[in-house]
Amino acid sequence: MRAIQLTSVNQLSLNDVASPQPTAGEVTVTLKAAALNHRDVWIKLGQYAGLKWPCIPGSDGAGIVTATGDDVDAAWLGREVVINPSFRWGGNEHSQSDDFSILGLPRDGTMAEQIVVPVEQLAGKPAHMNWQEAAALPLAGLTAYRALMSRARLQPGERVLVSGVGGGVALFAVQFAIAQGAEVWVTSSSAEKIERAVKLGAKGGFDYAQKGWAKQAAKDVGHFDVIVDSAGGEGFDELMNAAAPGGRIVFYGATRGDPATLPMRKIFWRQLSLLGTTMGSPADWQAMVDFVATHNIKPVVSDTFDLAEAAQAFALMERGGQFGKIVLRIDT
Predict the structure, then answer these.
(1) pLDDT digits over 157-201, tens only?
(2) Domains in the chain, CATH or no CATH each
(3) Could you tell me which of 184, 139, 154 has the C-alpha nearest to residue 280?
């Protein structure tokens, strides 16, 4: 089969590799589409823990079950599915186990014509999505759902701020919060991305590159009950300025590093909660799949490339030119 392989830092190629074979409890999924995440770029750049070469990247995928191992119900054959990339979460809903991993490293990922995964990682492909949309759902959708629903406990009528709109998780957070009945605002340094978020249903946005933007935003529209962030860094203090008393700031990344200082007095006096989150449990996964079906939510697909054009897809993500998910078509 054909697969994208990373053979060393910044070395990406389309190669012929052996097709994987399912063992007991596993299935083969013949993939129709896969999607990129920043995680794949960090692996390519050699900036991710547990690197191994060669590896097949990709945490997101959708396709058709074409083979089953022992102890798998034959009814799975021929089913259209999406793959949960959150492996071995464990039995604690509050946090993942020590054995937790994400599909695409160390286990070979979805940027290939076929993949073998345990059958419990599958869910039916949402009927209202095409293959590219379904492939765009798993990692970012799961991350956004847990951040908003399981960690921040978002309630209808609350005011939400999603920072750095344009990436997959941020856009799902916008869509999910709107579907939950929240009032949603966004930040970006791009006026175009803010405008596109407004077309999705956001009330408006703020340029985080402008000094004092958070206090001005609070003055103009009010403080925010829930703030969703993945950047951290020096801008994190501004998010605390934007938070309402008793507000929750939930963050799933730190692309700009750690904040230089943590203003303890501001946090305890205003009763703020700082909530870390990573991926999601099997219960989060099922709830997310049900939520998108109930609300007919479709992922925002930014750009689509053929599998052989994976290098172009990676380059687009590396320069931050996307609005939504970048998807690879896999023609088998």
Answers:
(1) 999 999 999 999 999 999 999 999 999 999 999 999 999 999 999
(2) 2-137+300-329 (3.90.180.10), 142-276 (3.90.180.10)
(3) 139
